[in-house]
UniProtKB/TrEMBL annotation:
Record Gene3D superfamilies: EF-hand (1.10.238.10), Rhomboid-like (1.20.1540.10)
GO cellular component: membrane
Membrane topology (UniProt): Multi-pass membrane protein
Organism: Strigamia maritima
InterPro entries hit by this protein: EF-hand-dom_pair, Peptidase_S54_rhomboid_dom, Rhomboid-like_sf, Rhomboid_IM_Serine_Proteases
Spans traversing the lipid bilayer: 165-183, 213-238, 250-267, 273-294
Localization in the cell: Membrane
Protein name per Swiss-Prot or TrEMBL: Peptidase S54 rhomboid domain-containing protein
Residues of the Peptidase S54 rhomboid domain: 208-292
Matches recorded under SUPFAM superfamilies: EF-hand (SSF47473), Rhomboid-like (SSF144091)
Keywords: Membrane, Transmembrane, Transmembrane helix
Length: 296
């Protein structure tokens, strides 16, 4: 009986010692991680979680950095800068060099900072499943946001508020008008129907009706014309609106529509005009300029 009590007491003591050791390791990890984060954040004032290599190399030679990091670590960081194929060093890369090892506790400390694990008691690193919306936002950031640091900021902070509804609404309106005239005229072809007598068609003989200079965009000459414009608006225009905002993209779109009717009235004054092609071409031009910015 006494022996069993002694064994039970020993087990309790061993468990307490293990818990104490684990707690001490957690405290040490937190302290070390906080030290690395504080040092890294001093040279990352914008809080993007990464520092461009040119700025980081300047930081390596600063007195403040030299006082916190030993020469061997600074040499390793300088070598990493020379060998790196990326534009910036992330917090995790910095921690990797500063620790010099990749133990389970170290991986958890790094991923815990990035909120990629639920707790440090997990046996495996638990990565939360990424939603479809977050995947789409990440893809749009990679394709439509110019600078690398801005991409990360956009991905982390995009909230879809206010929602990018301008081009969605325009698409639904154009589709609705096409359906209405298709049903009324009783035909559907690749190049028709064309509602010439509509109040919205731009006509040279009715130039004084100012609304026609804009509202001709809601009509289309056939399903090919319609589908092309709608696809560009959704696949190109919507991501641009998510990145640059409704006000900017809406202005570009409407300016393209107005330029189409004004240009036609000057250079081809006998032509009837329908379709949102002017706005669509403006979106394509905006996308081209965006590609040039992304590739720089």
């Amino acid at each position: 009986m006494i022996e069993s009590q002694i064994m039970a007491s020993r087990n309790v003591i061993d468990e307490a010692a293990i818990d104490f050791e684990n707690d001490m390791q957690d405290v040490l990890h937190d302290l070390l991680n906080d030290k690395w984060r504080q040092l890294f954040d001093k040279f990352d004032p914008e809080g993007f979680g990464e520092i461009p290599w040119p700025d980081f190399l300047c930081a390596l030679s600063s007195p403040e950095f030299q006082s916190e990091v030993d020469p061997k670590k600074r040499e390793l960081l300088a070598e990493k800068a020379e060998q790196s194929k990326t534009n910036a060093i992330t917090f995790q890369d910095f921690v990797n060099v500063m620790s010099g090892k990749r133990t389970r506790s170290f991986k958890i400390a790094v991923h815990h900072r990035d909120r990629e694990v639920w707790s440090e008691t997990d046996f495996h690193l638990i990565v939360p499943e990424t939603s479809f919306i977050r995947k789409m936002v990440k893809f749009i950031a990679e394709e439509f946001v110019p600078a690398g640091r801005d991409r990360k900021y956009y991905t982390d902070n995009y909230t879809c508020c206010p929602p990018p509804l301008f081009l969605v609404i325009m698409t639904l309106i154009e589709l609705g008008f096409f359906t209405f005239y298709t049903v009324n005229l009783g035909e559907l072809t690749a190049t028709g129907p064309v509602p010439i007598d509509s109040l919205f068609v731009y006509r040279p003989d009715k130039r004084t009706e100012i609304w026609r200079y804009l509202f001709y965009m809601v009509l289309h000459a056939g399903w090919i014309h319609l589908i092309f414009n709608l696809l560009v608006q959704i696949m190109i225009g919507l991501p641009l609106e998510m990145v640059h905002g409704t006000m900017r993209i809406g202005t570009v779109y409407m300016a393209g529509v107005l330029a189409g009717s004004l240009g036609t009235s000057v250079f081809d004054s006998d032509v009837y005009l329908v379709g949102a092609s002017g706005g669509v071409y403006a979106l394509l031009a905006a996308h081209l300029s965006n590609i040039l910015l992304v590739s720089i």
